[in-house]
Amino acid sequence: MNTSPLSTLFGYFALLSLFAVGGANAAIPEMHRIAVEVMHWMNDRQFADMFAIAQLSPGPNVIIVTLIGYHVAGLAGAAVATVGMCGPTCLMAFFVARVWDRFKDAHWRIAIQNGLIPVSLGLIAASAFVLARAADHNVYAVVLTAVTAVVTFTTRMNPLWIFAAGGLLGLSGWL
Amino acid sequence: MPESSAPPPTIAKRPSLTELLVSFAVVALSGFGGALPWARRMIVEQKCWMTTQEFNETFALSQFLPGPNLVNFSVVFGSRFGGVAGAAVAFAGLMGPPLVIVTVLAVLYANYGDLEVLSRILAGIATTAAGLLIAVVAKMAAPLFTKRWNSGPLIAILAFLGVAIMHWPLPWVFAGLAPVSIGFAWFKR
Lengths: 175, 189
Known about the structure:
The complex is a heterodimer of chains A (175) and B (189). Chain A has 175 residues and is an all-alpha fold.
């Protein structure tokens, strides 16, 4: 197979975007499977790094595809991955928006939306699992992930503080 | 429909293309860790471009569609006020500034990602980012798992096992579970 990395990037992300029910976070495991396990574009640590950078950047979480694209094929890769992930679904959003009023109260429409909620929940849970496995290499890291989950669930602390604490603990060499 | 029970008429303002571009850029840049609350604040409270109900309905559409929710929202919102140009401008505002920032970060990472100091800091942030995502899952799961018996938890667990443990491709897992889950939702009423 002699396909260029650009068409591979575009094809993968365009296909992936159509199954990303529940947003970009639901697509993380599939991105990981392709980038790390199938294509060997990067290792676990690099994937976890890119997720961290995407979280640190302002804007939509989908921006992680730009980082993956850049890693694979430079600026062109970044552009192609971003267009692949956003293009097809943007077109779909544009056209569905024009007919939405006609079927927004339809029973089948509500059934689809309600039926997809558990699927996206399972996918986002898989994202958390895949990321924790990629990021946590010792027992301290697992504890930090667990503590972060509990603190975030029970308080409304700004994630910036949590990232700052995580970065400092990482710097200390414990993780 | 009785007119008296309707909410007070909103001052229906229409954003210009420039306003769309700037507003979505502001939302993107302030929207750290989820830009939805910022989008709601700007559109409903500050600019009065939509009522709360209109906003919720438009956002429901964005969630209904596959792909990144906020990106979908920018297209739907922009197209409503400015057609193709409006959609393009809102999308450009939302994605433009973050793309510039993340490209700079990508270049820095490509050059300095192997530095011990940087990789330790990123490892720490990734560890907490995984924890944040677990909390998101817990918040989403709470209503699903506390209801009377329904198919939701089973579907969610199967999706998790298929993707996280079995490492099956997402399209397969989706094709296997989504129709079943939608079927349950259809008959539940």
